[in-house]
Amino acid sequence: MNVYLDYSATTPVKPEVLDAMMPYLKDFYGNPSSLHSYGRENKKAMDTARDQVAKTFNAKPEEIFFTGGGSESDNWAIKGAAAALKTKGRHIITSSIEHHAVLHTCQHLEKEGFEVTYLPVDDQGIISIEDLKDSLRPDTILISIMYANNEIGTIQPVEEIAAIAKENKILFHTDAVQVYGHFQIDTQTLPVDMISVSAHKLYGPKGVGALYLRKGTKIHNLIHGGGQERKKRAGTENIAGIVGFGKAAEMAHENLDAHVKHLTELRDHLMQGILENIPNTRLNGHREKRLPNNVNVSFEFIEGESMLLSLDMVGIAASSGSACTSGSLDPSHVLLSLGLSHEMAHGSLRLTLGDQNTKEEIDYVLEQLPPIVQRLRDMSPLYETMKEGAR
After folding, report:
1. Does residue 267 share a domain with residue 239?
2. Are residues 131 and 154 in the same domain?
3. What is the pLDDT of residue 389?
4. CA angle, 368 as apex, 265 and 305 as ends, to 5°?
5. 100 — alpha (psi -120 to 50), left (phi > 0) or beta?
6. Interior CA angle at 61 toward 31 and 73, to 5°?
7. Are 292 and 231 part of one and the same domain?
8. Active-site entry in 324, 326, 359, 371
9. Are 243 and 378 within one domain?
10. Residues 66, 245 contacting (CB under 8 angstroms)
11. Once rounded to an integer, what is the mean pLDDT over residues 85-113?
């Protein structure tokens, strides 16, 4: 049996999405900036996709700007806000467990003379609202806190953060790449100024994303050139990708309740099975305040790469953390921020579910995982020392 449990890294393109894209890969190849019929046809398709994405946010179409993905959206929001507001202040607040698209962008801005406060998190991965309030300064211009973490699935108190930002007249950006398609994000009730999302996390194509930019929010451009995206983001648009994004967003919005129910049931079954059947195991992230598809656990006396290779040999695709850092030998900055030791962080496993997973697949994982963990532990001198100490 082959089981894919790495949906937080990327999702397969749904057939309906691919069907929507195909005409714009084969027949409708005009540049949407052109005035002739070929261009007008693609401009119309892009407008439709923008409407589809806007409806998922309960936003206006003119507040949606298409990008090349979530990382670009994060970069644009943070660098664009910093450039636009640098005469007002140079202080930014973020968290210690952000995606590297946010962390590395903030570190880049520090080299440009900005000051960044990296808020710590508790052992469940949640920031303290009091810490946030204490970090506010007269020169604070931006708060960027992710909606939910891509590794451990913990959901942040975004509503409270947004309210604090609004009360203090500070721009608030949230990286919602992992949340989009799992939760309803209503910009009419959530006072957030900028939201980053990506198509390939909700069964759309790779290489396309969006930045929600609330009307009236002023940020500088990240990419300069032509006048595309209402002169905000230069470059000929990826029409097929944008059409696919619109279709994927529409489908996710329409099927949200059933999708979340299915994933939550599988997640809880997987989580319970691991914690009950494999001793010396820690659940990473908040047990309830977490994404419906995320299970992240650390096994004592285990090296994560060996576990992933062993799982792959029996047809199970998983990860030890973010796909963006899979080549790194360093332990996850997210898990270290929770207070885990380097050894425990190295023994982590992220299992993320999707629409195509079944209970039979989860049962197969629960059948295969315990003996793999035990075999690897039997090879560990630390495990042997622990057993001798328990005798």
Report:
1. no
2. yes
3. 59
4. 100
5. alpha
6. 75
7. no
8. 324
9. no
10. yes
11. 98
Kindly state whether residues 52 and 132 are assigned to the same domain. yes
235 and 333 fall within a common domain: no
φ, ψ for residue 104, nearest 5 deg: -70, -30
Q: pLDDT-derived band of residue 330, with 50, 70 and 90 as boundaries? A: confident
**How many structural domains compose the chain?**
2
CATH number at residue 273: 3.90.1150.10
Distance CA 380, CA 371 (A): 14
Q: Which helix (H) or strand (E) holds 181?
A: none
Using CA atoms of 218, 223, 225, 228 in order, give the dihedral in degrees to the nearest 10.
-60
Q: Give the C-alpha separation, 74 to 86, whole Å.
A: 18
Q: Is it the case that residue 324 has pLDDT exceeding 60? A: no
Residue found under tokens 């300064």:
137
> Is there a single domain that holds both residue 126 and residue 176?
yes
Question: Does the pLDDT at position 48 exceed 60?
Answer: yes
**Residue 242 CA to its chain's centroid (Å):** 19
Question: For strand 209-213 and strand 194-198, is the pairing parallel, antiparallel, or unpaired?
Answer: antiparallel
Residue 244 token pair: 């696919």
Query: Element (H or E) spanning 103, and its range?
Result: helix 100-111
* Token couple for 268: 């809880």
Structural domain of residue 182, as residue ranges?
A: 15-254
- Please check whether residue 111 is in contact with residue 161, taking contact to mean a CB–CB distance below 8 angstroms: no
324 catalytic, yes or no?
yes
Determine what percent of the chain is predicted with pLDDT higher than 70: 95
| Alpha-helix residue ranges (DSSP H) falling in 215-303 | 228-231, 239-254, 256-277
